[in-house]
Amino acid sequence: MTEVAALSDIQPRGVAVQPALTLHRVTKTLRRPAGIIEVLAPIDLVVAEGEIVSLVGPSGCGKSTLLSLVAGLDVPTHGTIRAAGVRIGGPVPDRVLLSQDAALFPWLDVQRNVEFGLRQRGLGAVDRGVVAGRWLDRLSLRGLARSTVGELSASDRQRAALARALAADPSVLLMDEPFGGLDAMSRDRLHAELQAIWVSTRKTIVFATRNVREAVVLGDRVMVLSPRPGTVLAEVRIDLPRPRSLEDTTLVERTRAVLRALRAGMREETCP
Fold it and tell me: Is the pLDDT of residue 236 over 50?
């Protein structure tokens, strides 16, 4: 039977004494000439070290805003966000945000894009080459190392962006619909590659998407967000081994559970 829990029931298995991320009563409000826009209603969330948490919800529910807050690129209106017990006060290299726009530097080739964060940290040329080469190999980019960004396919641009992020060895990887613009086959391949990377690195990942199937394939837990103002409606645990097969009947049932929670939230939004 699929487990769906309200936020008050969330107690992730394996949470360390100090979780990777803790969000307490986080809200975000924007002031506009036309009035106040409430983007996020109070959100409480604990992410364990080494966990993949998927955020899924309709467009405009505040997924991107939430990731920006965790990345330290914006500040909540109310509430607190802590990383490893320390209150977030701005962006740091230990938390990396990837978006659908790969945000690669067009004047650099793939190798130098992957090395960019390492150069900022002061690593020498030899060490940069070793680290970057490792991730180029892991993501099947070695043959494209000297290619320009404009010569890459959409999926290879995302691989290069992911390689750059992982080369920096962050504790927390924040992913904002990074595969949203890809075709189904490219997306499935990147899902498999990301799962394989997680198995070997156990990175803490928060992955935002509108694609329920993607959220279930990748996540240890799926947090279902409401229409704006976004808040957590439900949690669906995906306690299945990796790699995950889309044909697995249990995975299909988990997907249905997420869809039911989403549809219930939409119905509540439209009720008078």
Answer: yes
CA distance 178 to 186: 12
**All structural domains of the chain:** 4-88+203-270 (3.40.50.300)
CA atoms within 13 A on the CB side of 172: 25
Orientation angle between helical segments 154-167 and 125-138, nearest 10 degrees: 130
How remote is the C-alpha of 68 from its chain's centroid? 11
Cβ neighbours around 182 below 10 Å, total? 18
CA distance 97 to 84: 17
pLDDT category of residue 267 using cuts at 50, 70 and 90: low
Cis peptide before 229 (omega within 30 of 0): yes
Tokens representing 159 are: 């691989």
Q: Parallel, antiparallel, or unpaired for β 232-237 and 4-5?
A: antiparallel
Instruction: Please name every residue paired with 65 in a beta bridge, in sequence order, or none if there are none.
Output: none
For residues 261 and 156, give the distance between their C-alpha atoms in angstroms, rounded to a whole number.
34
Question: Which residues, 6+ apart, have CB-to-CB distance to 214 below 8 Å?
Answer: 54, 179, 187, 191, 207
198-223 pLDDT tens trace: 999 999 999 999 999 999 999 999 99
Q: Which pLDDT does position 9 carry in this prediction?
A: 40
